[in-house]
Amino acid sequence: MHKIFSRANLLAATALTSVALFGGQQVLAQGKAAKIKLGLSGGMTSLLGFGTQKSSFEKSSNADVSGVTHYEQFNIIMDTEIHVSGSIRLDNGMTVSVVAEFEADQFTANGASGQGDKGIDDSYMSLDGGFGQIRIGSTSPGSHDFANTAPVIGALSHDNGDTDNWVVVPAASGLGSPGSDISDGNVMKIVYVTPSMAGFILGGSYEPGAATSELVAASGGNSGTETQSFDVGLGYAAKLGKANISADIQYQRVVGPAASSIRALRGGMNISAGAFTIGGGYRQVRDTDSGVSGTANSSDQDTWDIGVTYSGSGWAIGLTALGSEMPLTSAAPGDDEVTKLLFGVSYGMGPGIDLLGTIAYVDWQDEATNASNNNVGYAVVGGVSVSF
């Protein structure tokens, strides 16, 4: 009896020891679980070309007199981005990712202060799973993920400040850098995007303040100066025969001081069939305060874009157009307007290396007829883009 008891004790002790060792190895293995490993990616684009201005806009003269401004025709532009990112899949199936995108050129966008080419674009953390994706940080709006705008090929884009580096924007224009998308501002926000369900996807975001500051936003009261933003969008993508179709509709609301409070509605569609892609978008911005519309502080604006591209073996061409108009005051006839026409080409010289070219026509028209408020010009730009 004593021997049986002793043998039982020995077996029990051996079992407990094995469990302890095995459990300890599991804990040790879990303690040594790999952290997120970061990787580098990004790209560098080098452009050079020629641009023209309307002579009356420059007030050009042979005499060096006050008020004359002459712009050089030749310009060189560098656009360099370095992306640091990484992700890890957890035991529960969720994927955690981190992203930071750095601008690496020695200037700010179009000479402006604040965020530009010498700073940071996106900087956020994301959680992905069967529930969709949640992003927290400096990132694009949720409905921006599936927005459809005009396709573009070449060295310049139509819906940002690319052409401004070659054809100067009159200082009196209130149009900014118009585009058919609601916004792509990378300010601190929380974003949610659903998984695709039968081709449909829903996304939205909340931005508590538009300032690049960690302080609580001063967005209300008589002395409030900042705005907060909400957006929501619905996208759809499907294959119809041999064609791929994608479409979306988005709504945005910006709340703050009367002159900055707006509502925006936009929609877009792209259709790809074989080597051809055609698409475009339309955006309407309206003041939410009726006392602002029709004044110099109005944000009312309508923007459209449309484009078509054709892709061959290692090359592509495209034609893209954009138009935008903004009525500023009911007292002055006409609107602030811009029209852009771009013909672009690209040719793949090697993995991640493309030769780019664009011929652009840009026409800035102001509601006032002053020569300094109106400019028309052409740009011929070429360069090389390297992605890594």
Structure commentary:
By secondary structure, the chain is mostly beta strands. It has one domain (38-215, 225-387): Porin. 9% of the residues lie in helices and 47% in strands. It has two helices and 16 strands. Strands 1-2-3-4-5-6-7-8-9-10-11-12-13-14-15-16 form a 16-stranded antiparallel barrel.
Number of strands: 16
Unreliable segments of 5+ consecutive residues:
1-31, 111-116
Q: Looking at the structure, what is the overall shape?
A: globular
Cα-to-Cα separation, first versus last residue? 75 Å
Class in CATH? Mainly Beta
**Main sheet attributes: strand count, strand direction, barrel closure:** 16 strands, antiparallel, barrel
Largest sheet, spatial ordering of strands: 1-2-3-4-5-6-7-8-9-10-11-12-13-14-15-16
- The amount of beta strand, in percent, is over 45%
Mean pLDDT: 84
Task: Assign the structural class, choosing from mainly alpha, mainly beta, alpha/beta, alpha+beta, or little secondary structure.
Answer: mainly beta
Q: What is the C-alpha radius of gyration, as a whole number of Å?
A: 27 Å
Could you say what the CATH architecture is? Beta Barrel
Determine the number of helices (DSSP H or I, runs of at least 4 residues): 2
Helix residue percentage: under 10%
Q: How many domain regions?
A: 1
Q: So, the CATH homologous superfamily?
A: Porin
CATH topology, by name, is: Porin
SSE series: HEHEEEEEEEEEEEEEEE
